[in-house]
Amino acid sequence: SNWMYQAGVFLSRSSGTLFTAPMVVLWIMPALQFLNLGIYTYIAASQSDITTTTSTTTSSSSLLHRPSVLYAGALYTGLLGGAVYIHGYKRICLDIPNNNIPHREFSLAATSLAEGVGIVVADMLG
Questions:
Q1: CB contact at 8 A, 92 and 107
Q2: What pLDDT band is residue 1 in, cutting at 50, 70 and 90?
Q3: I need a surface site. Which of 32, 54, 66, 121 has the fewest CB within 10 A?
Q4: Distance CA 87, CA 84 (A)
Q5: What is the pLDDT of residues 63-118, one digit of tens each?
Q6: Model confidence over 37-75: pLDDT tens digits?
Q7: CA proximity to 36, closest of 3, 74, 87, 8
Q8: Per-residue DSSP letters for 27-70?
Q9: What are phi and psi of 20, to 5 degrees?
Q10: Alpha-carbon distance 29 to 91, whole Å?
């Protein structure tokens, strides 16, 4: 699934050269990432239920544990994450004018710091 995630990140980061996401879309994408958190939490929490069921019964939650569904979810998560990353930085570079270089540099540095802190917090929380 990591390969699928990385493929999604690569594709979405490459989209930065093709178009610029509107600000509304840029705000919606993190909300969708938060929704992904809920979905993956549910999948992880219901995993023990799947191991105790017999092979003759198919619950609706067991469909979420199929590799094809999980791979598609990993690709989707990579697409979202890469798109938020590239289009966030691109919006900073486009929205802050060239004559305001100190503010642009501060915005890029603050965004980079926030991204790093977010990764550390996510790793600490599991």
A1: yes
A2: confident
A3: 54
A4: 5
A5: 888 889 889 999 999 999 999 999 999 999 999 988 888 999 999 999 999 989 98
A6: 898 888 888 876 555 555 555 555 578 888 898 899 999
A7: 74
A8: HHHHHHHHHHHHHHHHHHHTHHHHHHS-TT---HHHHTTSHHHH
A9: -115, 125
A10: 14
Outline where DSSP puts E strands in the chain.
none
CA distance 124 to 119: 9
DSSP H or E segment with residue 88: helix 67-95
Whole-angstrom Cα distance, residue 72 to residue 75?
5
HSE-up (13 A, CA, CB side) for residue 14: 7
DSSP structure class, residue 45:
H
Yes or no: say if 76 and 10 are a contact pair by the CB < 8 Å rule.
no
Identify the residue whose tokens are 């305001």.
Answer: 100
Token pair, residue 70, equals 């999980």
Taking the mean position of all CA atoms in its chain, how far away is CA 18? 20
